[in-house]
Amino acid sequence: MLIKILPVGMLETNCYVVTDEETKKCAIIDPGADSNEILDYVESNKLTPVAIFLTHGHFDHHLALEAVMESTGAPAYIHETEVNYTKKHSRHLIEDNGKLSYYAEGDVINVGNLEFKVLETPGHSTGSVTLMCQDAIFTGDTLFRGECGRTDLEGGSDNIMMQSLKRLAELDGDYEVYPGHADCSTLSYERSFNKYMKYATGDLG
Fold first, then answer.
1. What average pLDDT does the chain have?
2. What is the DSSP code string of the chain?
3. Considering the entire predicted model, what is its pTM?
């Protein structure tokens, strides 16, 4: 598995292109802006996008979605509650024009030989998800290095965020953590040093 990180847009959202190196099929996670940069990487490496994953529906994670979908023909996946949210609260709508697919807890989507499993991890928004693939988790704006996502936006919840952080902390083993913004981390590091995760697990003292 090859993971390319492309910080895009004014908020430097981490867009990830995750490739099965054997088949050259890839998934694009959170195409937040700069569609030309994303597509240039895909084309220059002769990759075949077969899925576009959105960790949640905030604008900085999907502004390039339409352009990337049109260019690649790949289906886009999002939790259904996020589409309903953007219709009510966002100037940057995710239009469900029949080309969107919905995923939810426990769904598994194949990208070449890779399997992406969906974990529902709300708190930052009602339909935020974390995507698991091999030894990596793509946490969107739920878990950052040393931090967690803000909960003061519409659909956010402190209590629900703590439940999601506890769930991630209790995953078996260790994982590379690929967040929606800023630096990557490991789950073992976050269990030890992230005060929000430690609070969520009752280990802050």
1. 93
2. -EEEEEEETTTTEEEEEEEETTTTEEEEE---S-HHHHHHHHHHTT-EEEEEE-S---GGGTTTHHHHHHHH---EEE-HHHHHHHHHH-SS----SS-EEE--TT-EEEETTEEEEEEE--SSSTT-EEEEETTEEEEETTEETTEE----STT--HHHHHHHHHHHHTSSS--EEEESBS--EEHHHHHHH-HHHHHHTT---
3. 0.95
